Amino acid sequence: MDIQGGELNLAELFSDDNNFPKIKEELRSLNRYRVEVGVMVPVGNKSLAFLQMIATVNEFGAEIYPKNGPYLIVPMRDGTFYKLKHVKIPERSFLRDGVDLGMHKIVSCVEDGLAGIMSGDMTARELYEAVGLLIEQRIKDEIVLKTSPHNAALTIENKGKDDPLVDTGALHKSIGVKVIEI
């Protein structure tokens, strides 16, 4: 069945030897899945809960105040400590921007996937997997590309670089995707 270029031969579509019933079932199957993409994978000695907290703080920003005394104690890599009254972490949206700034690619992937389903070359699940993998890559790209707002001077001193969302690479490695049957 040729549907390229918007041409659809109805006689071929409704003939006895077509794949229309299978295609119809795959189109219905689009309602049976959902895709989840985000911080899903624990990395090294960093728990999933810790990595999700780091992602949330960076995604939305946060102000952190001491709970058990007048200062936050910030350990440095050289073994020294800094005392701070509070820390402000600016918003560095990498999850939302990963999707929003890549929406044209995501829409194109869905369009190609629907054409694949209509031609019998793709299943609904495969379409969700393709979209999920694309979004996963967009988020990972955004982690690497996001350079603003810059790190604070103390953070640069501690990390040795001004790369806001990259330190050990754990956040990048924690991004995962799963397709769920609902």
Care to describe what's here?
With 182 residues, this protein is α+β, with helices and mostly antiparallel strands. It has one domain (19-61, 91-181). The chain has helices spanning 10-13, 20-29, 48-60, 95-100, 103-118, 124-145, 153-159, 170-174, and strands spanning 33-39, 62-64, 72-75, 81-84, 87-89, 175-181. The strands form 3 sheets. Strands 1-6 form a two-stranded antiparallel sheet. It has a two-stranded antiparallel sheet with strand order 2-5. The chain has a two-stranded antiparallel sheet with strand order 3-4. A hairpin with a 5-residue loop joins strand 3 and strand 4. It is elongated. The model has no long low-confidence stretch (mean pLDDT 91).
Topology (elements, then pairings):
Blueprint: H1 10-13, H2 20-29, E1 33-39, H3 48-60, E2 62-64, E3 72-75, E4 81-84, E5 87-89, H4 95-100, H5 103-118, H6 124-145, H7 153-159, H8 170-174, E6 175-181
Helix pairs in contact: 5-6
